[in-house]
Automatic annotation (TrEMBL):
<dbReference type="InterPro" id="IPR000300">
    <property type="entry name" value="IPPc"/>
</dbReference>
<protein>
    <recommendedName>
        <fullName>inositol-polyphosphate 5-phosphatase</fullName>
        <ecNumber>3.1.3.56</ecNumber>
    </recommendedName>
</protein>
<dbReference type="InterPro" id="IPR039737">
    <property type="entry name" value="INPP5A"/>
</dbReference>
<comment type="similarity">
    <text>Belongs to the inositol 1,4,5-trisphosphate 5-phosphatase type I family.</text>
</comment>
<feature type="domain" description="Inositol polyphosphate-related phosphatase">
    <location>
        <begin position="4"/>
        <end position="338"/>
    </location>
</feature>
<dbReference type="Pfam" id="PF22669">
    <property type="entry name" value="Exo_endo_phos2"/>
</dbReference>
<dbReference type="InterPro" id="IPR036691">
    <property type="entry name" value="Endo/exonu/phosph_ase_sf"/>
</dbReference>
<dbReference type="GO" id="GO:0004445">
    <property type="term" value="F:inositol-polyphosphate 5-phosphatase activity"/>
</dbReference>
<dbReference type="GO" id="GO:0046856">
    <property type="term" value="P:phosphatidylinositol dephosphorylation"/>
</dbReference>
Length: 338
């Protein structure tokens, strides 16, 4: 048996806002993807999309099929001799359409590349519906929901059929431990709770620095608003200081692993075409979009004499508007025996 190497490109992209703003974003989105394919020249590409069709998927599903056809038929992809597309698009058939209740879920496909079998699992987990609720506990209740959902997905792909190395990639909606982050960055702050007039519910939480004559608002947190003073923290050294608050994969370390994160948080970027590097003030920036793998999947990634330098784990379109999520890709050489 002789070991052979196959260059593989895995990409995950939440394209909800792409379909809601097709005209403005699509061309640049495609150019960034095609440039990545042209630069690395993979022999196998797997694209995992979430929120295909956007919020109004019934109106946009025809655009989705055109979008996929544009990718398939492009000159940049002409060297690939086959393509498989799995999409749940028939929303008129209620018994079969799986996105009736939610845009969340998972999809598994099984592949054989030379003699190496792989499972590729597209995952979309629950988001944080309210920043205020997310800040109530550490870990947040949403983190607990995601942990249960991910454990369910892993159990399903482990129980059915013959187990194979697997890659889980999608929008996991992993968030930073917001309560711990806010508390650590506002140790000397005054905390003010602003209540709604009509009810006894908290409308916003304001953390003000009382260390000088001019009060500075360190954080202002509302249901769908997250204002913060420390913008540099999310920018300097690709936000590495904040990785200690990225804790949602810790419960799965015995099952899954990940290449080192050396890129900025992938969400929530501005959907304004003119502000491609700016985060929206809606959520705490987080590494929502990820490519995880089983430990035996990590073993079939070729590392060579240069170790991890043969592997690229990064975001697509860092300086281009790609929607509110930056796609994330993993490029590597897959080992197999022929």
């Amino acid at each position: 048996m002789m070991e052979t190497l196959t260059d593989v490109l895995l990409v995950t992209a939440n394209v909800g806002s792409l379909f809601d703003n097709l005209g403005e974003i699509q061309n640049d989105w495609l150019r960034e993807f095609f440039t990545t394919v042209g630069t690395h020249k993979p022999r196998f590409v797997a694209l995992h999309f979430q929120e295909v069709g956007g919020k109004d998927y019934k109106a946009n599903m025809a655009h989705a099929e055109n979008f996929f056809w544009t990718i398939e038929s492009s000159s940049e992809m002409s060297e690939f001799d086959r393509a498989c597309v799995y999409i749940d698009s028939d929303f008129k058939t209620e018994d079969n359409f799986t996105r009736k209740w939610s845009r969340k879920g998972y999809m598994r496909t099984r592949w054989m590349i030379h003699n190496q079998g792989l499972d590729l699992v597209n995952v979309h987990l629950f988001h944080d519906a309210s920043n205020l609720i997310a800040c109530k506990s550490s870990p947040s209740v949403y983190s607990t929901y995601r942990q249960k959902a991910l454990r369910y997905v892993i159990s399903r792909i482990s129980d059915d059929f013959v187990p194979l190395p697997f890659f889980l990639f999608g929008d996991f909606n992993f968030r930073l431990d917001t309560l711990s982050l806010v508390q650590d960055l506002s140790t000397s702050a005054e905390v003010q709770m602003v209540m709604k007039d009509s009810t006894n519910e908290v409308e916003k939480i304001i953390y003000e620095d009382k260390g000088n004559d001019h009060k500075q608002v360190l954080f202002q947190i509302e249901t769908k608003r997250f204002l913060y003073l420390h913008h540099k923290l999310f920018r300097e050294d690709t936000g590495r200081e904040l990785l200690e608050y990225d804790r949602e994969t810790a419960a799965f370390q015995d099952i899954i692993t990940e290449e080192e994160i050396l890129f900025l948080p992938s969400y929530p970027y501005s959907e304004d075409y003119t502000k491609p590097t700016q985060y929206m003030n809606t959520r705490c920036p987080s590494w929502c979009d990820r490519i995880l793998m089983s430990h035996n999947a990590r073993d079939v990634i070729y590392r060579g004499n240069e170790g991890d330098r043969n592997i690229l784990y990064n975001i697509l379109g860092p300086k281009v508007c790609m929607g509110d999520h930056k796609p994330v890709f993993l490029f590597f050489a897959l080992k197999s025996n022929v």
